[in-house]
Design brief:
18% strand; 7 helices
Length: 136
């Protein structure tokens, strides 16, 4: 099962999302913290596989890139507020694999977490050779 970390400075939003994900019974553990500054300790201590990060906080801080550099296997989902959809180039620039709205139904958020889990996987050379035959 997967451990998920929610990073959102809005306490009410963070706790509501945490409660929804716990109630879904889809994750081994759901953790939360108010900022990226405190996230790295949780990532290491609890073997976090996916972070749901406030999009505004992610775009304003170089800490997300630092965390991703130290944990390249970490999946990232950006949490949107009332703003629109983030384009693919910006998602990649921020190191994110998916995005969702804070107001989305729990199942939609779970799908975004699943997308981040899949997106973080990098096939090994042996697997690529098996599927990409060059006709030698």
């Amino acid at each position: 099962m997967t451990t998920v970390l929610i990073i959102d400075s809005d306490k009410d939003s963070r706790l509501a999302l945490e409660a929804q994900l716990i109630a879904s019974n889809q994750f081994e553990r759901v953790l939360s913290c108010p900022g990226l500054q405190t996230a790295e300790a949780s990532i290491d201590a609890y073997e976090v596989k996916v972070m749901l990060v406030d999009a505004e906080q992610a775009s304003q801080s170089p800490l997300l890139q630092h965390i991703k550099a130290n944990n390249p296997e970490l999946g990232v989902v950006l949490l949107q507020g009332k703003t629109g959809v983030i384009d693919s180039a910006t998602l990649l620039e921020l190191g994110a694999h998916a995005q969702t709205s804070r107001l989305a139904a729990p199942m939609e958020i779970i799908v975004s977490v699943a997308k981040a889990l899949v997106g973080r996987l990098k096939p090994g050379k042996r697997i690529l050779e098996k599927f990409l035959k060059d006709g030698k």
